[in-house]
Amino acid sequence: MMVIVVENAPPRLRGRLSLWLAEVRAGVYVGVYSRRTRERIWEEVGALIEGGNAVIAWSAQTDSGFAFECVGQNRREPADFDGLTLVRFKPAQDAEARKAAPAIAANAARS
Question: According to the CATH classification, is domain 2-110 in 2.60.40.1120?
Answer without folding.
Answer: no
